[in-house]
Structures are given as C-alpha cells and as structure tokens.
C-alpha cells in the first residue's frame, strides 16, 4: 500500500525539489550563521515539521478550500509574505548594526545564544505560512496516492519521507556553513551576508505578496 511502484519516482522528485535553493535553504543558512549548529538544526527540524501540516491539509481537502476561496488564500499569502519580509528586515537591521552573529574568543568562533523556541518558531512558520507549499502538496501528493489508499495515512507517510530527506540535506548545509564559520566571522563578510540574505528574503516576501 505504502511501498508501491510509484515510490521511487516520488523519492527522486522530492529529492530534486529539496536540493533546489529556496526560502528554507536560505533560512537554515542564515540561522546557522547566527546561532551555530544548534540553531541551524532546530530551524531545519521545525521547517520539516511543517510538511506534516501541509500533508494533513492536503489530504483533508482544506487546500482545495483555500484555493477556491480567494480571500482566505490571499490572507494566507499575505501572512507568509509579511513573515518573510519581517525576517529579511531583521537581517538587514543586523547588517546595519554590524552584527555578524559570530565572534572570536581566544582563537575560537562563538555564536550568539539563540533560544530554542526562536529557532523552532521561525522554521515552522516560514514553512506553514508559505502558500506555494500548500499548492505544491495539493497538486503533487495525489499523484502518488492510488484509489483505495487511506489518503491521510499515505499523505503523512510521504511527508515523512520528505521530512527525512530534507533534514539530511539541510544538516549537510549546516555542517558546510559551520566549516566556514571563521571566514563568516569577519565583520565585513558578516555584514555582507546579512545584507544579502535580508535583501533576498524581503524580495521573496514582496514577490510572494504580489504573486497572482
């Protein structure tokens, strides 16, 4: 039922989707620079938890309601766009203040102390409030659910596979950023990084808000 002939096609498609750069990738990298390995891993975990929400919503048909109700979908879209703009604005403010997020201490790099709830909240909301993920799951998952399959259980199973693949990929990103911590701790590099990530997040947010 769950391990059918379409599973390998799903795994290939979802892996290609996962490694494609996007808001999730950007947020994981930004938060790893900000708070180190723990911040990046918690952000990744929370982002991927949001996949189960989208899977349940898709299976329950709520996504169809959102897409057919113009004002409800617009509200969701604006909420997600506003949240991205807010995250980007915070990065730009950090760049303005010259906060790289990393500091040297007796030859070692020290990250800012970030509350676990902050990492989890940012990751979860950035995913759940993204209407493009709602549309993707609504259009994509049904292709791998056959007549007679329990829709909710199968959707959550597929989301679970996505959860594992996405966490593995984002953990690789966290480790790669960690190896570049000394370079990123340079004030000028840190300021440029925050400026770049902040600008991209604001751009994504504005484009999402005005995307028809």
TrEMBL record:
- Give me the Gene Ontology terms describing cellular component: plasma membrane
A single Pfam family, by name?
LysE
Named from the GO MF annotations, one term is:
amino acid transmembrane transporter activity
Q: Where in the cell is it found?
A: Cell membrane
InterPro entries noted in UniProt = LeuE-type
Membrane-crossing segments per the record: 6-29, 41-65, 71-89, 157-177, 189-210
Q: Which domain of life is it from?
A: Bacteria
Q: Does the keyword Transmembrane apply?
A: yes
What does the UniProt keyword field contain?
Answer: Cell membrane, Membrane, Transmembrane, Transmembrane helix
- How is it placed in the membrane, per its record? Multi-pass membrane protein
> Which protein are we looking at?
Threonine transporter RhtB
